[in-house]
Fold this protein.
Amino acid sequence: MSFDPRSNSADQLAAIVESARRLGVELDETDALQWMTKIAAWKAYDDVEVDSESGVFGHRIAMLDWSPQELAYYRQIGRIVELTDVPDVCETALALSGSSAQSKIQTYPGDCDYFERVNIKAPTRDEACLVLGRVIRKKALDTLKGENYQLVEVRFGCSPVEVTARGWHYKPGTSLSWSPRELQAGEIAAVTADGEQRVLRWDEVALDPGWLKLDWLITDPIRGKLAKASNVLDATWEAPDGAITPLDGYLDPYFQEVYLQADSIPIFSKLVRHVSADAIDDYVGLMEREVKKYLTKDVNYGKAAKRMYNVFRLTGRHAEAAYVRELFDEPTTLLYQVWSLLRAIDEACDPDNPLSMDQVVAQADKLILDVVSVLEGAAESEIVKQLLILRDMISREHTGEALSAETEAARQRVINVVNSFFRERMMALPEIERYMNTMSEV
């Protein structure tokens, strides 16, 4: 059901409105129509829009969903997570991504998601990788712990061989996870598939940086809860002749990013000239693989819905995109915060992570109060019931230890009831139901 501005838009909206009303989903018809009209007019890949008042910029599609309401807050957190420039060596451009960049429609965003382009100028690729490694490690060590944040994990470097470390199994070439303790030591103690001890050192794996990401836990003063602040890095090497080479082999497109400072336009413009002409197809393919994963393997209908939104708005399915857009701009999607709580439980069970079970219980209390304040009906009552049971279970658990079987069962019941909630709302629109059925096929 793609939107054609020359057709009867009222007829197209009618189907969305009917599906939304059937499940009590609030839908602003005027806003939906305006958004469909604007996105249908988009044509050019290199269509970048600058908000002159705030100084942010991004692709026109991303800017349709961005709101300046919490810009000061995001810039404040950005100072914690960003890699900073090193004159003549490292230049950067920091952006919001994910639900943080879609603050106009994400009434209850999940985390503080950032994306940063990091361009290293060096004589050789190997030297660029080593410089990148030093910059990332310094950033991580400088932000191990602060008044309202603490480092949780850094993804850096690829395992040269098959190993197991801290319960993680790595195949050759997969991204390594560094705990704060391992980061400080500069090495990971591992065991190979043959049972031999193996030490993976930061400087040695730096020559194959792989997927790069830093994660912190922060105290969110606006929403009154713990949140994760993450920064995904897209690193490039600029050779003396000006050639740009992605250090992980792929230069990311910019459909989900809202850049926080206008003075990063020059570095942004220089890098995105090298984005593949097939970037839209590549991006949609990536999103659809994730949709399939969250529908069939790591089942999470909330995450699947967010990725479907990105697919729909780039492939002409504008009516479907408008429905999902409105779905995430209404009180019931507060339940997306359940996934943050479940991840916090996992982190409190990890002895290498700094989160305590008492902090998780406090987050559960806040979520339960919020859910009670905005939701009503039989389905919502069942969700509150299961959250209360889970909250009681985790209050008896100990930090750094695996969950008991009873608590794990309660956790799974919460997952099931929240997944059912989101699945029902997505399947209400026949076109989305057909798409989900197709993506769920083996």
Remarks:
- The chain has two domains: 1-41+291-442, 48-277.
